[in-house]
Design brief:
InterPro entries: Bacteriocin_Proc_Enz (IPR052544), Nitroreductase (IPR029479), Nitroreductase-like (IPR000415), SagB-type_dehydrogenase (IPR020051). It is a single chain. This protein has about 525 residues and is an alpha+beta fold. It is built from 14 helices and 19 strands.
């Protein structure tokens, strides 16, 4: 199967991408976190602040602040137990899960966080954030400003950054369950994590810039990870000064390549615990990862810019609303992904306007694709089906964030059509007043970024998902990201084929009832 066909099926016909005889071996499931063995560790403070109401002053963070930041980004936050009935005699079983503040497909968390830190309190070097023990694990000691700068194409002033985050994907962590479909999930999961990093950085007074383009092999070599098992998907420098993060002009410097850069550092290889005794092969993931890699900084590109055409269809002007003010720590703790827990209640037009405004306004972020998301129509957009929203006819719409209006696509109650398109009826869409679809280019951004463009598009969709979920939670609503739906059906509903767009992910949003489970927060 060609890579192009594989990606097409991954989006429109999932069953064709997976092996027909695939069975999940739950007894041999991997850990949801990586545990390095026999390496120096630095414990992080457990006295995390329980409130993040206000943005903090811009200061050089100490180790405690970095630990608080990492815990809110990716730490284990809750242990939950849910009662599940099964069989004709309705036997009750208890299912336990370790929850973090962000969602992940199947709760498997395929990403790992590595950091290049420079601090007076610890040795400068490359660290792994050990989620299970809430500590830093030293992987490679030294100052790597020049190395990382060149791997990013000298577009960032690394000496002025106090840290740099590397987000990797461990392929097996969700391949064991989802088979080849995990490739799509991994990009989305990585994007959700990036979205959390961006929002938490704001609350802790940091500036964060997202790099999707870097010399993959050089960065993987720096960290010491095996590219047939794991690879870095995103690089995020952290600084107190926004101007240091992304060069706004053309950087005139010599070009670098991964091979030459990697020769400057010795190879490091560390032992770590996976738990699975038998790891099956995933050749398509390795092949896609390989073909998506950037070997030279000369191939770095911006995304082509495109502007919305002024549509003559009916528009609804939404109420003017301000940005939400909330305690981000509380909102993250209360975020909930309802399944059959949705309960039908109408939504006010003001709440809908606030949800859409908040998600798109806060999505604008510093990146190496175009510098700003704001005016580029080649980036994720929001389409939505509404039912029983105050003052708005039931139907399908496009949200124009530039004019804060809804563009009418097709009137009517589309809940039956959406429910019919679900692969598994885990959510009752008849109880949902808002069903949002994050939409992107049908050809991803392959024209400028080849197969890496697919991965980038999924990551940006993940960032948008995280913004929607935070905004929904702040409004007392729940959202449940779904990939098990008929994409073609949704594309037809919004007439996306005509404009070369497609639906990337579906998020029902609405009111919900409390689920019968026991939860314990893991903080002091």
């Amino acid at each position: 199967m060609s890579l192009q066909t594989f990606l097409h099926n991954l989006h429109f016909d999932i069953e064709k991408t997976n092996q027909s005889d695939w069975e999940v071996d739950w007894e041999d499931a991997p850990l949801t976190y990586k545990l390095y063995k026999d390496l120096p560790t630095i414990p992080l403070s457990l006295n995390v602040p329980l409130s993040l109401k206000e943005k903090r002053d811009l200061i050089e963070p100490n180790l405690d602040e970095i630990g608080y930041f990492l815990w809110y980004v990716y730490g284990v936050a809750q242990v939950a137990q849910t009662a599940i009935t099964s069989g004709s005699n309705e036997m009750v079983n208890m299912m336990s899960s370790n929850r973090r503040f962000i969602p992940s497909g199947g709760g498997l968390y395929p990403n790992e966080i590595y950091l290049y830190l420079k601090s007076d309190q610890i040795s400068s070097g490359i660290y792994h954030y050990d989620v299970a023990r809430h500590c830093l694990v030293l992987l490679r000691e030294g100052n790597f400003d020049s190395y990382v700068s060149r791997a990013l194409g000298n577009r960032c002033d690394l000496p002025k950054c106090f840290g740099t985050i590397f987000i990797s994907t461990m392929f097996w962590k969700n391949f064991f369950k989802y088979n080849n479909f995990s490739y799509r999930l991994q990009g989305l999961d990585c994007g959700v994590l990036i979205g959390q990093i961006i929002e938490m950085a704001k609350r802790f007074g940091f500036k964060a810039g997202v790099y999707y383009q870097f010399l993959d092999q050089a960065i993987n070599h720096l960290i010491g990870i095996n590219e047939r098992e794991e690879s870095v998907y995103g690089v995020i420098p952290l600084s107190n000064e926004e101007s240091t993060l992304i060069s706004k002009g053309n950087v005139k410097s010599k070009h670098y390549n991964s091979i030459d850069l990697s020769k400057e550092l010795q190879t490091v290889s560390h032992k770590y615990l996976v738990k699975s005794k038998k790891i099956k092969e995933f050749p398509m993931l390795i092949k896609l990862n390989k073909v998506s890699m950037i070997e030279s900084t000369q191939t770095f590109r911006n995304v082509d810019e495109a502007v919305d055409d002024l549509d003559e269809r009916n528009r609804i002007i939404l109420p003017k609303v301000g940005r939400l003010s909330y305690d981000l720590a509380t909102i993250c703790k209360e975020r909930f992904s309802p399944e059959l827990d949705f309960v039908f209640r109408p939504i006010s037009q003001k709440n809908l306007a606030t949800l859409l405004k908040e998600a798109t306004a806060s999505f604008s972020y510093i990146n190496d694709l175009d510098g700003s998301f704001k005016n580029n129509n080649n980036r994720p957009k929001l389409y939505l089906c509404l039912y029983n929203v105050e003052g708005i006819n039931n139907g399908a719409y496009y949200y124009d964030d530039h004019t804060h209006t809804l563009v009418q696509t097709k009137l009517g109650d589309h809940r039956m059509q959406l429910q019919y398109g679900m692969n598994a009826h885990t959510v009752n869409l008849f109880q949902v007043p808002i069903c949002i679809h994050v939409v992107g280019n049908m050809e991803h951004i392959k024209s400028t970024h080849s197969y890496r463009g697919y991965r980038i598009q999924q990551m940006e969709a993940g960032i948008m998902v995280q913004r929607l979920l935070i905004a929904a939670s702040a409004l007392g609503l729940g959202g449940h990201p779904l990939l098990g739906y008929n994409v073609k059906l949704c594309d037809e509903l919004y007439q996306l084929d005509e404009i070369g767009k497609t639906s990337l992910i579906q998020i029902p949003i609405g009111h919900y009832r409390n689920r019968p489970w026991l939860k314990g927060n893991l903080h002091s």
